[in-house]
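Q: I have 345 residues here and want to know how they pack in 3D. Can you give me a structure?
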Amino acid sequence: MPAPFSFHGDNATFLAPMQDICDARFMDIVASRGVPDFFVSEYVRIHEFFNFDSRVLEAAANLHGGRPVCLQFIGSDPKHIGRAIAELSKYPEIKMLDLNLGCPAPKIYKKDAGGGLLRHPEKISSILRAMRSAWSGVLSVKMRLGFYSADEFPRLLDCVLENSPDFISVHARTVSQLYRGECDYSKIAYAVSAARIPVIANGDIVSAKKAKGIIDATGCAGVMVGRHAVRNPWIFRQIRETLSGREVYQPRLSDVRAYVDELAKAILSSDSEVRHPDSRLKKFLNFIGLGIDPEGAFLYKMRRSRGMDELMAVCDEFMLENSAGDKYFPFEPYPQICSRPNKEL
């Protein structure tokens, strides 16, 4: 059995895995604004005919801001996952491996992978046994509270813990909730009390203040932030400053505009041709826009723009022109926008 794993210091921070977002360029952009302690890669879909995606390997095999990346697997067959682990011997730089037990996308869970595995505890055990026996590096599990109900969580947690992962991260929703409804952080506290390994909290960590509240309430070893790190890539710096009692950095809209410019340059310089770079950038701006103006006018106009030139002009209008750049970017998204249906924006 591998030596016990522990984080260096308390309150570790992670950038959560987000498909089609967490590539090497995005990790570097986030790192330049306040690097998390760890990154988690986009998942590698493991099946009979899998091949490692070179983009994901590039992200996972390199440090970003001096911090390591945990490579994430998603799959349901222990034999194929074992074969993938054997392939990883070619990449000694990769030292951390995560099993996804939380993806709520129907195309994934309908194949009994990701969050779909939470309906089959016996499969979880067989997969983790195979991974633990084949992998000598750090092994983690990212999971949700259950598929249909959080009442499933104690049994599922036992299945995970009995196979000796080094740490777990728990998104405090069920798969059926997707990203809607309230997170149940009491289950994070339960996991902390039940586990002898670090537990990382995930789900709706909208700000450094929220992160501190969850850490204080649950005793978790740290937090994992996804969507709100896309909106606010300074959040990991802000979490460290909040936890240490220092003054918390607050960017201005001009800083956000510079961030958008870096995202645009990364998209346009991508090795793989992006047919519609404006659509790709809008994926990020849909998150960023939650903090641009309280009425949602930016989101409305941005989503209806056509082409990169028009899209960037909208960004200039709301983030630079008429002294907009001097305004502070809020620590949390505007709640009135988050509660409005997308069709109104």
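Q: Anything worth noting?
A: The beta strands are 12-15, 38-45, 69-74, 96-101, 138-144, 167-171, 199-202, 222-225. Residues 253-268 form the longest helix (16 residues).
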